[in-house]
TrEMBL record:
Name of the molecule in the record: IS630 family transposase ISMex30
Organism domain of life: Bacteria
GO molecular function: nucleic acid binding
InterPro entries the record matches: RNaseH_sf
Length: 80
């Protein structure tokens, strides 16, 4: 691989180690994916409706908890 990359006059860049800062996003997407699987939408319009409906299941408090659980500032003010 090194030879092929060098022959292409390119260089390898290594990704950063896993970032715990991605956790709020991962938790929210895990919930979103579960809701979309449950909806079982099979057409574009149905999928758009399922996504729109899925977002109604995210409360501001829950989103704040995703962020707080990842170790970010817990002084966030969230309207309830």
């Amino acid at each position: 691989m090194r030879e092929a990359v060098g022959a292409a006059e390119a260089r390898r860049l290594y990704l950063l180690p896993y970032s715990p800062g991605l956790n709020p996003i991962e938790n929210a997407f895990a919930k979103l994916k579960a809701l979309l699987r449950t909806a079982a939408a099979r057409t574009g319009p149905d999928l758009r409706d399922a996504i729109r409906n899925a977002f109604t299941h995210f409360t501001p408090c829950e989103c704040r908890n995703f962020i707080t659980a990842a170790g970010y500032d817990d002084d966030l003010t969230v309207a309830t």
